């Protein structure tokens, strides 16, 4: 969590209502020369938008937490989940007497006031139980008060906040009174908290704190823990929890934060891999929440609005059940100019009406919406509960696209222009959807705007995106969608080898005509590749590439030619051959958060010596690299790694092993390779 201002500064910020600064007009943008191609593929289905999707944080130092004006603004922006009592304050907060020793508690911020605000907004609560200075009994009493005494039906409860920041890894911002601050002890107590809380109300969902893959302290093992934080917590507490809770502050400049949104598919993939590997049986029941998100540059201006819409969409399309902005009100930070606008360095999405200590700069009046508030409002217009995300992509890194398909057949497309200086014209291609000739409903948030402009204008296939803008198009289909079959159910994979997998799925329900066949499609970016079709509810896919990740959907087609929506996505990864003429053991050790010591053991399983060898593999992401190496010659071009011998280890005798090592580096989620080729032969892995 990002800490609040001091009590004096906070009170000054919340009590002083200053007139708004004059809006500085941004520099005139020019148009980029080449049009951007946007592809929207409704055959490539992603996750469905849950009823808890759009979240925000509320904090007990904010005296406006329970006001009608604040709640009405959050309701109007479409907030569906509200987190309490405020990040790191959760680990010093005692709900019974509404105190936070060592911190400031504002009047009118107690739990009942918060719940009244939740109900006025029409949202659900996410409550953080005090781990740092609390007890399982205190948390159980809170559940009893909330759901038995008051009948608030509070479903979601997280055990603590950022508890890896308790000094266990060297940095200590999170309160933790336990003598043992290890990940092991946190996990053991999560089990005690979950047992005590569910003894009161078995229907609640309990969450544990994890770290973001690719961000500190991911990958680091401290003390006597058996592994890094996530591995340790899941191995012990996995069977007792219902979801995991992650925070992400990408840091860097505005451009760097916006670019790092592309880390999220791999981050959520790694989280699910960790759940499957460490959390025990039925780990796919465990949800993922991202309950703190914000940027370092442009917190109140357009970069934050673009980041919010882009990151919320990226998380939700990858199956995260809620995403939360940090936070509603916070207070003044360092005042800067960002893309022609005054930025107050304030983590809040609503103005606290604060001034700098010398009074030279004041925010707009209390509760004036900042840019991220408008970004959240754009999300309300774009992705509604029950919509299914579908794959969308572009050929320009500064323009990103997301899309959802609605139950009435409409398609909504969100376009994000991250270029602060240039307008971008786009052409939009649609696969599996034909838009009507009726002009789409267009909503736009431009740099410096105080609200969203909406009209019905233009065409479905071309648009000019203003510099630093969000644009949503809502399109009607050209034909009626009545009578189509329902989407097939969630596919599963079995018998996955290095080159094949069997995909099975629950049958679709016919619409106006009998179902003729099912089609299995692979997502290749925003393009679908049909892998095959069948009249049954199972299909074996051959000719897959070893060590590769596949995301597939199943569609049903009836005898009248009507096609269903895409099934929910299935993602699986092929491995290496069970047997081969060679085996590669890939190891990592001494991970320090953005690098590690790597090693490869190359084993000749043949009956003859290898006189000369070349080992190759491809990193799964673009932010992984070999920094240096030894006992071999190491080369990397793009994501491809090539390792060749020295004069000392050029020969590998039959049954023999050669070892080489390297320093690996990464600046995002570190997805390790699983397929290696030696002299053109795909090796087994050990």
Structure description:
- Residues 487-577 form the Fibronectin type-III domain.
- This protein has ten helices and 39 strands.
- Strands 1, 2, 13, 14, 15, 16, 17, 18, 19 and 20 form a ten-stranded mixed sheet that branches. Strands 3-4-5-6-7-8-9-10 form an eight-stranded parallel β-barrel, surrounded by six helices.
Main features:
686 residues, alpha/beta, TIM Barrel, Immunoglobulin-like, ten-stranded mixed β-sheet, eight-stranded parallel β-barrel, 10 helices, 39 strands, globular, disordered N terminus
Give me the secondary-structure topology.
Elements: H1 7-15, E1 30-31, E2 36-48, E3 54-57, H2 68-76, E4 81-84, H3 111-121, E5 124-129, H4 136-149, E6 156-159, H5 183-200, E7 205-209, H6 229-237, E8 243-248, H7 254-259, H8 264-278, E9 287-293, H9 302-317, E10 322-325, E11 336-338, E12 341-343, H10 371-382, E13 388-394, E14 399-405, E15 411-417, E16 422-431, E17 441-445, E18 453-456, E19 462-465, E20 469-475, E21 492-494, E22 501-504, E23 515-524, E24 527-534, E25 538-541, E26 549-558, E27 570-573, E28 582-589, E29 595-604, E30 610-611, E31 615-618, E32 624-630, E33 633-637, E34 640-644, E35 651-652, E36 657-666, E37 677-678, E38 681-682, E39 684-685
Outline:
Residues 479-498 are annotated as: Disordered. The protein has 686 residues and is α/β, with parallel strands linked by helices.
Domain count: 4
CATH class division of the largest domain: Alpha Beta
What structural category characterises the helix and strand content?
Answer: alpha/beta
Unreliable residue stretches: 2-27
**Count of individual beta strands:** 39
The number of distinct helices, counting runs of at least 4 residues, comes to 10
Radius of gyration: 26 Å
Shape: globular
Major beta sheet summary: 10 strands, mixed
The pLDDT mean sits at 94
Signal peptide: 1-22
Keywords: Carbohydrate metabolism, Glycosidase, Hydrolase, Polysaccharide degradation, Signal
Domain Fibronectin type-III: 487-577
Domain CBM2: 575-686
